[in-house]
């Protein structure tokens, strides 16, 4: 099993010039949960995600992965899987090379051969239901496919935590709905602490274990979708959530058989 | 067509290849404009090029052949080739380093740095040579010290190299910066999260993305380095067979009234210039294809 | 918790910036500084003497004067060429487009001797002009023609992309409002390409004033009459008059910088006025 670790943000402050992106944010992310950072544009949610990844350095405060203080550890060594909003796939590599990248750069350290790397990558691509396209270039794929390649690439290195920045933002509505449900199932199989950023309250309500509502760099409320819907902590929260389809959120069934073709995947003990 | 030269009627619209709308200017106007432009460019540019080749062969092919195989000519070609290669190589390193620093990071004084990089463009080539004479010439700042240590810079190849570097300094950086700027740094960030080191990122992610722009930049820089005349003229000493680059050798022959020989060397240089233009056009096509597929890439959902 | 130092995400900042700055300083800044240092050590009197000597003034007038005329010619024809390349389709257009780049790629010395031979009294073109009493080689006219050659790509290549990106809808709007082609051109298109045109003009001008290789053969180099400033610098150097050469060089640089600065301010002013709605 991939080790599931909790993440703790402690008193995070971050300013960009005069703009306060995060103000004294503290957050405990439970191991293995699917957490949504939800808020309007400019609320600072992406900043928090990037702080966890080490892509932004906070002005003050700390990030803990389990018991480890990550402050002095850069993004290169934090072992986070980061999925960018616009996927950031390597344009001039094919899908196989893209997904294998993280393994290739650590090939010696991990003691893997090219054949082993290829095998892992193909398994992962099967897992995200993209088997058979490994020789194609990113430009030949649709947005939804690219999204899943980005996900596979992030997972290939067996990260401690999975971070997704507006993963479905660039997709059209139908694909978005389909993929987010798939992500929920996928997450339950992978058992990895996952944080995703979104401005779409339907999305957060539908698939997250817990939601953190962010506004102007501050946390407005943390809770399960049910809690937030029933007991909004402020006017902002009730207004923000209220513009949904009306009615309480319907969580996806825990019953996996309902969902199309997810194969069983056995993850080797992480090295 | 009427004397109402510019009729007050709306123009017809025509859709062209990529859906761009093209206005149908009246035929006579088009012929006039194309004719004028064509005549101007042909007379100004094409005719001299043809002239170079005709003059080179004016005394027959054997004279041409002799001229370019002459000992001093070959030495001149070699000197040009070596100094250009080194100058372009060094400026390439600089261009890559500067572009990386400028486009992937934000820091204070960035636009000032960019302005400084552009400086050599506004300096006359002769002045570009002068500055090195002032530094290293017999009466220059370091002149006495150099003489004492028997190091020759002015009137020897090192000064030719320095002058060429100075004149072609901005070319590669200027070509790379807009391309790298437009590509952003998301792919590089992704590579960082996947655990890649600096060199791995540069080699596997950045370089493939800029390869055609790089190729284009090197061609531009090389053509300029090879053709440099003014700056090198100041520092080289014009020593026949030793410190004459090919353009300087052309001047030498021309001043000796060995016109056919001069134009023979010139013809070789012209051939090279034309070849580099052809390569440039090729690179441009690939860059546009890349940019076009980037555009499709980003807009597809 | 304690303060954390802001770290850069991508690696290699210090290495690349450091190398770039060092290389820039050694290759460019220090040599240029040497030039200005020399100016200061020579004293105002020596500088003034050189700056106002008749020969120097004549050479500056010639270099900058010819450069302005040539840049003007290139501006006018450059617009036509850019227009034709962007707007029309005709056989040989690609070839024509490639021709425009030749002055960029061709060694200046090659251009210099070719133009001189062609415009000399017995040359290809010169012999047609001689009976008309027009002398080109070894006159300022020859210098202008050489500078027109060298500066051709500057205006065309600066204007081309801007012209290509002019929004067709603006022209359509003008047309539907009843404007003829000429009026549309001057009132709608020209203002849009004017900044680029000005930039191209400035570039051609700056390049032409300092041009040496393409000009020195055709110019005749008679002091006070057909001696361009760059050549005068070299002549002074040959005579070991470092002071004079430096003074002239600094004056040339100052004028070029002033022109470029003026153009920049003008551009900036226009865009500010535009934003404030004055234009």
On the 0-100 scale, what is the average pLDDT of chain B? Answer: 86
Quaternary structure type: heterotrimer
| Largest sheet: number of strands, sense, barrel closure of chain C | none
Q: How many distinct domains of chain C?
A: 1
Query: Quick one: CATH superfamily of the largest domain in chain B?
Result: MetI-like
Kindly name the structural category of chain C.
Answer: mainly alpha
How far apart lie the N and C ends of chain C?
A: 54 Å
Can you identify the CATH class of the largest domain in chain B? Mainly Alpha
Strand-residue proportion of chain C:
under 5%
State the shape of chain B: globular
State the CATH superfamily name of chain C: MetI-like
| Broad CATH class of chain C | Mainly Alpha
Q: For the largest interface in this structure, which chains are involved and how many residues does each contribute?
A: B-C, 106 and 92 residues
Q: In sequence order, what are the helices and strands of chain B, one letter per element?
A: EEHHHHHHHHHHHH
Instruction: Assess the beta-strand content of chain B as a share of residues.
Output: under 5%
Average pLDDT of chain C, to the nearest integer? 86
Annotation field: number of helices of chain C:
10
Query: The CATH topology of the largest domain in chain B, please?
Result: MetI-like fold
Gross morphology of chain C is: globular
Rounded Rg of chain B: 25 Å
- The portion of residues assigned to helices of chain C is over 70%
In short:
Chain A has 9 helices and 10 strands. Chain A has helices spanning 45-53, 95-105, 107-110, 114-127, 143-156, 173-190, 201-207, 225-230, 235-242; strands spanning 7-16, 19-29, 34-38, 60-65, 68-69, 80-83, 161-165, 193-198, 210-215, 218-223. In chain A, strand 1 (7-16) and strand 2 form a beta hairpin.
Keywords summarizing the entry:
heterotrimer, A: 271 residues, 6-stranded mixed β-sheet, 34% helix, 23% strand, disordered C terminus, C: 279 residues, mainly alpha
Structure description:
The complex is a heterotrimer of chains A (271), B (301) and C (279). Helices cover 34% and strands 23% of the residues of chain A. Chain A has 9 helices and 10 strands. By secondary structure, chain B is mainly alpha-helical. Chain B has 2 domains: 1-56, no CATH class; 60-300, MetI-like fold (Orthogonal Bundle). Chain B has helices at residues 27-56, 61-69, 71-104, 110-118, 125-136, 143-148, 157-183, 186-193, 198-227, 230-236, 246-255, 259-299, and strands at residues 13-15, 21-23. A two-stranded antiparallel sheet of chain B has the order 1-2. In chain B, strand 1 (13-15) and strand 2 (21-23) form a beta hairpin. In chain B, helix 2 (61-69) crosses helix 12, helix 3 (71-104) packs across helix 9 (198-227) and helix 5 crosses helix 7 (157-183). Chain B is globular and about 65 Å long. Chain C has 279 residues and is an all-alpha fold. In chain C, helix 3 (93-105) packs across helix 6, helix 6 packs across helix 8 (181-210) and helix 7 (168-176) runs antiparallel to helix 8. Chain C starts with 12 loop residues before the first helix and ends with a helix. The model of chain C has no long low-confidence stretch (mean pLDDT 86). Chains B and C meet through strand 2, helix 1, helix 3, helix 4 and helix 5 of B and helix 1, helix 2, helix 3, helix 4 and helix 6 of C.
């Amino acid at each position: 099993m991939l080790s599931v670790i909790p993440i703790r943000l402690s008193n995070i402050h971050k300013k960009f010039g005069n703009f306060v992106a995060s103000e004294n944010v503290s957050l405990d992310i439970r191991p293995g949960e699917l957490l949504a950072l939800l808020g309007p544009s400019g609320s600072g949610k992406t900043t928090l995600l990037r702080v966890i990844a080490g892509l932004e350095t906070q002005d003050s405060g700390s990030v803990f992965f389990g018991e480890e203080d990550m402050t002095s550890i850069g993004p290169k060594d934090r072992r986070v899987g980061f999925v960018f909003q616009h996927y950031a796939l390597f344009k001039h590599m094919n899908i196989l090379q893209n997904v294998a990248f993280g393994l290739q750069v650590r090939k010696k350290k991990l003691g893997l051969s090219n054949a082993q790397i290829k095998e892992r990558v193909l398994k992962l691509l099967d897992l995200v239901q993209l088997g058979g396209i490994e020789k194609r270039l990113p430009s030949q794929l649709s947005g939804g496919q690219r999204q899943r390649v980005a996900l596979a690439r992030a997972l290939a290195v067996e990260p401690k935590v999975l971070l997704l920045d507006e993963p479905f933002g660039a997709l059209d509505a139908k694909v978005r709905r389909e993929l987010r449900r798939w992500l929920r199932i996928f997450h339950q199989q992978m058992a990895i602490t996952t944080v995703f950023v979104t401005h779409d309250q339907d999305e957060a309500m539908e698939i997250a274990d817990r939601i953190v509502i962010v506004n102007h760099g501050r946390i407005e409320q943390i809770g399960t979708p049910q809690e937030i819907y029933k007991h909004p902590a402020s006017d902002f929260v009730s207004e923000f959530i209220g513009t949904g389809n009306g009615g309480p959120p319907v969580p996806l069934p825990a019953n996996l058989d309902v969902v199309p073709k997810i194969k069983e995947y056995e993850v080797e003990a992480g090295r | 067509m009427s004397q109402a030269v510019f009729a007050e009627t709306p123009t017809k619209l025509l859709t062209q290849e990529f859906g761009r709308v093209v206005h149908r200017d009246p035929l006579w106007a088009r012929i006039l404009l194309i004719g004028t432009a064509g005549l101007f460019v042909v007379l100004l540019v094409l005719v001299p090029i043809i002239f170079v080749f005709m003059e080179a062969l004016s005394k027959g092919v054997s004279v041409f052949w002799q001229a370019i195989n002459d000992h001093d000519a070959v030495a001149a070609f070699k000197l040009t080739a070596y100094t250009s290669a080194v100058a372009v190589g060094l400026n390439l390193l600089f261009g890559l380093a500067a572009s990386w620093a400028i486009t992937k990071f934000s820091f204070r004084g960035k636009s000032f740095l960019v302005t400084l990089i552009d400086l050599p463009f506004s300096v006359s080539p002769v002045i570009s040579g002068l500055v090195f004479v002032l530094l290293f010439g017999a009466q220059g700042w370091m002149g006495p010290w150099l003489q004492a240590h028997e190091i020759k810079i002015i009137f020897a190849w090192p000064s030719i190299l320095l002058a060429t570097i100075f004149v072609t300094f901005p070319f590669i950086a200027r070509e790379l910066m807009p391309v790298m700027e437009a590509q952003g740094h998301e792919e590089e960030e992704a590579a960082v999260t996947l655990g890649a080191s600096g060199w791995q990122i540069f080699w596997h992610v950045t370089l493939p993305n800029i390869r055609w722009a790089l190729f284009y930049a090197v061609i531009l820089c090389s053509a300029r380095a090879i053709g440099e005349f003014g700056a090198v003229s100041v520092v080289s000493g014009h020593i026949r067979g030793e410190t004459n680059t090919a353009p300087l050798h052309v001047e030498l022959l021309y001043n000796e009234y060995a016109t056919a020989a001069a134009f023979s060397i010139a013809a070789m240089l012209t051939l090279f210039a034309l070849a580099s233009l052809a390569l440039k056009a090729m690179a441009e096509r690939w860059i546009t294809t890349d940019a076009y597929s980037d555009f499709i890439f980003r807009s597809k959902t | 918790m304690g303060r954390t130092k802001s770290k850069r995400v991508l690696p290699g900042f210090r290495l690349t910036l450091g190398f770039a700055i060092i290389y820039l300083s050694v290759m460019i800044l220090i040599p240029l500084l040497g030039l200005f240092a020399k100016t200061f050590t020579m004293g105002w009197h020596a500088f003034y003497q050189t700056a106002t000597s008749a020969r120097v003034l004549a050479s500056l007038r010639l270099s900058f004067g010819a450069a302005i005329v040539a840049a003007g010619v290139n501006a006018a024809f450059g617009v036509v060429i850019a227009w034709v390349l962007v707007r029309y389709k005709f056989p040989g257009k690609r070839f024509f487009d490639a021709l425009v780049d030749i002055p960029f790629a061709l060694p200046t010395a090659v251009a210099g001797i070719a133009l001189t031979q062609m415009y000399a009294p017995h040359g290809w073109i010169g012999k047609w002009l001689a009976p008309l009493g027009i002398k080109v080689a070894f006159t300022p006219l020859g210098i202008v023609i050489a500078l027109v050659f060298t500066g051709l790509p500057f205006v065309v290549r600066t204007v081309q992309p801007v012209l290509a990106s002019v929004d067709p809808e603006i022209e359509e709007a003008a047309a539907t409002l009843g404007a003829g082609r000429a009026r549309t051109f001057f009132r709608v298109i020209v203002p849009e390409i004017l900044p680029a045109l000005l930039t191209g003009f400035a570039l051609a001008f700056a390049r032409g004033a300092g041009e040496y290789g393409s000009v020195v053969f055709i110019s005749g180099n008679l002091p006070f009459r057909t001696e361009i400033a760059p050549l005068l610098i070299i002549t002074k150097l040959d005579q070991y008059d470092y002071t004079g050469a430096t003074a002239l060089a600094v004056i040339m640089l100052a004028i070029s910088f002033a022109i470029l600065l003026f153009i920049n301010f003008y551009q900036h002013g226009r865009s500010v006025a535009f934003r404030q709605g004055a234009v």
